[in-house]
């Protein structure tokens, strides 16, 4: 049958067509594949890598780096295939709120045919290690099949569907996988509500799919909106799904899917794992493991890998761009005037360090923007620093932001610290066993409002004049 909408294989053909896919043959699943991917992310223009012929696996492939460039992310989001960084940011302006509003018009559509049904394995016969699941980092506690995954859950009362991206380690010699859902996230809330009401929770996990599901599963889609419907709004077409044993929707264009049940007493040791903060998170500890009732996969399936690590990592570019757009959108929609740009910096994993530039209009404006940004749903999880700068500072340029902090901020007067905010067990600063709070600093790095007219002038040339000089002397300034 022809490829379904949201097929990863169609996505790969397109990306290969514009030169951003590289084939890798013969890598070993045990750290070598992950090391190749890590080295690739550090290149100035990293490619997507499709690993095949993985040692010990005549079939089965692994894709990494799917959203690591403006062109690939622009294509994934249906914004265009030839965007550069600036063009992608411009194309994203206002889109998150429009996608959220359009999700209701793009609910998933149930289908009955799919290449995913070519191989259906009963739960007792499932061995996830028949797939080339990598051990990504040398310090990982095991092989992680869930890095670029989509874990589908539901609210037992409302029926609302959520899709989240959580780490999943293969356990029980391939017969199961853990689900490490972060407390406070919608998926974790769904699972707990099922536990409280029914003693078990249904779950579906897709391990290979169009990267739009990685994007929607890895960013904060507003509560009550299904990531599958949101993805449909992004692409302008409904996502096809199958209905399986648990009643949850199964992405029909996926490569590999398992479904089953989580139970509060069905735990397996999990971790550590190299996380997006750049550190291994914690010691080995119990996590819920899926009692798998069914596995579905295509022939020669492709696992979507998105291993985190010290930035830049697999999805740090994607998260930075998407979170920045969502935060800027939320600030504008909140009615705050003068918002120029919001940027969730990649060096902070797209979460820990957010800068916002404003046209400074009134006394208290900078503090208002800073405190609001720090607690926005799109930014609140594990945020540590929010810096507000003037409109002459590019919020996406970390050197300019730090310069503004150094020259326009009095630490005693211009930094507010808020305690007891939403942290994470992934925080390397969290003491073992302590509740996952963190504190965050709101930094006013704007010129004092009352001194805007008299504040020292910046000693740089007029931008228009500098541009004319650059044109005239291009032969001298060329690389």
TrEMBL record:
Domain 3-octaprenyl-4-hydroxybenzoate carboxy-lyase-like C-terminal: 317-445
InterPro entries, per database record: UbiD, UbiD-like_C, UbiD-like_N, UbiD_Rift_dom
Annotated ranges, domain 3-octaprenyl-4-hydroxybenzoate carboxy-lyase-like Rift-related: 113-311
Every 3-octaprenyl-4-hydroxybenzoate carboxy-lyase-like N-terminal domain range: 18-82
Record Pfam families: UbiD, UbiD_C, UbiD_N
Highest taxon of source: Bacteria
Entries under Gene3D superfamilies matching the protein: UbiD C-terminal domain-like
Entry-linked PANTHER family: 3-OCTAPRENYL-4-HYDROXYBENZOATE CARBOXY-LYASE-RELATED (PTHR30108), FERULIC ACID DECARBOXYLASE 1 (PTHR30108:SF17)
Protein name (database record): UbiD family decarboxylase
Organism: Actinophytocola gossypii
């Amino acid at each position: 049958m022809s490829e379904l909408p949201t097929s990863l294989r169609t996505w790969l053909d397109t990306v290969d067509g514009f030169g951003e896919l590289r084939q890798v043959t013969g890598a070993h699943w045990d750290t070598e594949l992950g090391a190749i991917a890590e080295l690739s992310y550090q290149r100035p223009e990293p490619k997507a890598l499709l690993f095949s012929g993985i040692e010990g696996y005549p079939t089965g492939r692994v894709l990494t780096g799917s959203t690591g460039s403006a062109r690939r992310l622009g294509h994934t989001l249906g914004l265009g295939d030839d965007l550069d960084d600036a063009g992608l940011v411009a194309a994203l302006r206002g889109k998150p709120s429009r996608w959220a509003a359009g999700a209701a018009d793009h609910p998933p559509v149930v289908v009955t045919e799919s290449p995913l049904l070519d191989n259906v394995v009963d739960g007792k016969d499932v061995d996830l290690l028949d797939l080339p699941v990598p051990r990504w980092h040398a310090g990982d506690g095991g092989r992680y099949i869930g890095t670029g995954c989509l874990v589908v859950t539901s609210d037992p009362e409302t029926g609302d569907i959520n899709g989240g991206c959580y780490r999943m380690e293969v356990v029980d010699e391939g017969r199961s996988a853990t689900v490490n859902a972060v407390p406070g996230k919608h998926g974790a809330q769904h699972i707990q509500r099922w536990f409280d009401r029914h003693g078990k929770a249904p779950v579906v996990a897709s391990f290979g799919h169009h990267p739009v599901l990685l994007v929607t599963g890895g960013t904060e889609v507003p509560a009550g909106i299904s990531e599958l419907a949101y993805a449909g709004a992004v692409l302008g077409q409904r996502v096809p799904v199958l209905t399986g044993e648990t009643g949850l929707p199964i992405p029909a264009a996926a490569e590999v899917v398992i479904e089953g049940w989580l139970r509060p007493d069905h735990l397996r040791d999990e971790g550590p794992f190299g996380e997006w903060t750049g550190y291994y998170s914690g010691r080995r500890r119990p996590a819920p493991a899926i009692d798998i009732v069914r596995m579905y996969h295509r022939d020669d399936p492709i696992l979507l890998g998105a291993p985190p690590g010290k930035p830049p990592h697999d999805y740090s570019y994607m998260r930075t761009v998407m979170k920045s757009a969502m935060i800027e959108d939320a600030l504008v929609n909140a009615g705050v005037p003068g918002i120029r740009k919001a940027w969730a910096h990649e060096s902070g994993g797209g979460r820990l360090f957010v800068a916002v530039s404003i046209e400074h209009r009134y006394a208290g404006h900078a503090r208002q923007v800073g405190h609001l940004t720090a607690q926005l749903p799109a930014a609140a999880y594990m945020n540590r620093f929010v810096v507000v700068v003037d409109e002459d500072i590019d919020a996406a340029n970390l050197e300019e932001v730090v310069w503004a902090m150094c020259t326009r901020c009095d630490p005693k007067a211009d930094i507010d610290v808020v305690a007891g905010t939403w942290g994470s067990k992934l925080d390397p600063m969290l003491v073992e066993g302590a509740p996952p709070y963190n504190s965050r600093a709101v930094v006013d790095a704007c010129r004092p409002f009352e001194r805007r007219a008299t504040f020292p002038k910046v000693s740089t040339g007029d931008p228009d004049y500098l541009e004319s000089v650059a044109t005239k002397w291009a032969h001298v300034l060329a690389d």
